[in-house]
Amino acid sequence: MIAMIVLSVIVTLFSFWVLGVHKRLLNARKRIKTAYTQIDAQFKRRYVLIPNLVEIAQSYIKQEREALEAVIAALNEAVEANALTASHPLAGIAILHLSAAEDRLTVAMGRMFAIAESCAELQSSPAMLRLTEELNDAENKIAHARQAYNDCAVQYNQDMESFPGPAIANMFGFQAAELMQAAAPVL
């Protein structure tokens, strides 16, 4: 009889322990999703600024239509990748796709800014200066939000890797979070 009581106490304690680890992993996963919403908000802000920059640049550097169209194409790809990632922020493939799309956008924006530097009128345009400043602010906020996301992802991955995390993670279908790589600065 005492053996049954001891066994049921051990099973009960083990169950609470497993549930505690499960809850810790759920909370860590929730923090990742919350952190991604901050990145998403800043990406959306940036995605609104970029077409305005292209529109202003278009009026000054008409001969560079191809570079401006490349920015819009890369922007559209990044917007789509961000939408997918926002709905599945723990999907590693979505994060990798978003990082690649953001890299292509950064390259296209860099090319546009390199061309814009050769046009003194465009560089001194008050609208261009204002939008460039806003874009820089958005880029800084994206970098901070990305770091917060990566911090949450690292903690979550560490929780999954430390005992008994792997067993609990496998039992309940938890998957490691992908870190979001920083793109090279646009400006």
TrEMBL record:
Compartment(s) where it occurs, according to its Swiss-Prot or TrEMBL record: Membrane
Coiled coil stretches, renumbered: 128-155
TM ranges: none
Membrane topology, from the record: Single-pass membrane protein
Record bears the keyword Coiled coil: yes
Domain of life: Bacteria
Keywords, in A-Z order: Coiled coil, Membrane, Transmembrane, Transmembrane helix
Pfam families: LemA
Similarity field: Belongs to the LemA family.
Name assigned to this protein: LemA family protein
Organism this protein belongs to: Undibacterium umbellatum
